[in-house]
Amino acid sequence: MTKVGIDAVEIHTGKLKMDLAEVFAPEMGDDPEKYTKGLGLHASSFPDVYEDIVTMGANAAYKLMERKGLTPEDIGRIDVATESAFDNSKPVSTYIAGCLEQVYDGDFHHANKGERKFACVAGTQSIDDAYNWIRAGRHRGRAALVIATDTALYARGDPGEATQGAGAVAMLISEDPSLVTLSTEQGFGSADETDFLKPNQQFPSVDGKRSVQVYLARMREALEDYESVAGKVELDDVNLAPFHTPFPGMVRKAALLGFRHIIRDTDVEDELEPEIGRQPREAEFDSEENYTEAIRAYMDDLKRTDAYQEWYANTVDPTLYLARHVGNWYTGSVHVARVSGLIKAYEAGEDMTGEQLLVGSYGSGAQAEVHSEIVQEGWKEEIEAIDILDHLDDRYEISFDDYEHIHDVHNHEKDVDVEEFTVPQSEFVFDGWGRMDERKYRFVE
Ligand code: COA
To answer: Cβ(31) to ligand 1 under 6 A?
Structure first.
């Protein structure tokens, strides 16, 4: 069977940076460690005045096409995943294709374009669509461009303000990919939930605490569903576990639950028994309350074991590095986590070829998806070529006053005139409004 997966990735970060501990926490009257230790976040990326979901997506896609030497004729599909769309009819992919057509001779007239919506899981769903399109043999030898782009802003004063971010991830999905292949097996955990939604409004209505619980419940369901088709996940089989990362503290919670699940009825549980006992089994308890209490105590002990700490440090922590410095990118977040883990493996000189990733995506509303990926031979060249770390350093650091202005600039209900903080170069920029209220873009040399 033909291998299908992610051939290449490019990441574009919003060009502004706000330090959460030094700039945001004091203004909120918070202890800086709530951010750095509790949420696991150091900084958030924000879009400059001339940036939005189209420019960020187009800039990531342009970089990817240039690096891979692609022309529009090589692309048969452009899918954009976003939960920050500003148009209920015309998909963001048409705006992005329009941008790219400004700089290429050819066009994307024969590419199928669309937009995927299911909160943060839509990026993974778009990869799914591309995978199925290629597997069905409808691609005519062409590749698919999947772009996850979001400006994750919350209303001023909402607790979610702590976890904002903005950026785009462009991915090329093809046959015989250089980076990772995707498993046919996948698991879903999906239910009608009201944890985070935007009913015809720009900023989300969020029940933050509930969304954490729903994330964990749906992810557990998805993992069990995945195991029902792929077989039990073994600790040693998984080299990295990139998960949707609204903030690293969320993944820390999910990782502990995942570890408990994976080691149940294995040698690892036996080996840990003298230290922390066996995992509580529901059947052994007379009430749910007692069972929950016992589970909580077991988890507290499990978290402190060397076995867990070592697994977490090797398998999960490397995937969180980028998120700590950019915040939540919604649809792009799990794809940032994958790259983060591979960058760290590259820096550590690991040979990842043939290694397995267990990927967990999540979208509020709510749906989790779990699948696995196998790292391909070309991974080193692909990861080496991603220059996101340089771009993180190049971001312009904003003060709290700047933040208030930039939040207003990107608030659809406000019309404010704010100077650009950075100078655009070799990139697409927002260029005002057209006669039908469409947003217009141009390429700046
Ligand atoms: N030192 C160390 N840790 C600290 C701390 C300090 N001084 N102060 C607080 N913390 C910890 C808290 O204990 C908590 O960790 P825990 O959940 O493991 O107990 C964490 O920091 C966050 O603090 P909390 O008081 O819960 O923050 P909050 O009320 O501002 O809300 C969110 C946090 C995530 C719920 C909120 O930012 C939100 O709604 N985000 C958007 C929704 C979202 O991202 N959902 C995730 C699923 S997709």
So the answer is: yes
The Cα–Cα gap between 329 and 119 comes to 11
Kindly report, residue by residue over 218-271, the tens digit of the pLDDT. 999 999 999 999 999 999 999 999 999 999 999 999 999 999 999 999 999 999
Q: How far, in Å, from the CA of 95 to the mean position of ligand 1?
A: 36
For the chain, the distance separating the N- and C-terminal CA atoms, rounded to the nearest angstrom, is 44
* Domains, in order of start, for the chain: 4-444 (3.40.47.10)
For 338-373, how does the pLDDT look when each residue is reduced to its tens digit (9 = 90+)? 999 999 999 999 999 999 999 999 999 999 999 999
Determine if the peptide bond prior to 366 is cis (ω within 30°): yes
333 lines ligand 1 (CB under 6 A): no
pLDDT in tens, 320-338: 999 999 999 999 999 999 9
pTM given for the model: 0.98
* Centre of ligand 1 from the C-alpha of residue 242, in Å: 20
Q: What distance in Å separates the CA atoms of residue 276 and residue 299, rounded to the nearest whole number?
A: 10
Instruction: Please give the number of the atom of ligand 1 that sits closest to the Cα of 38.
Output: 21
Residue nearest to atom 28 of ligand 1 (CA): 159
Distance 163 CA to ligand 1 centre (A): 9
- 15 within 8 A of 165, measured Cβ to Cβ: no
Active site residues: 83, 120, 244
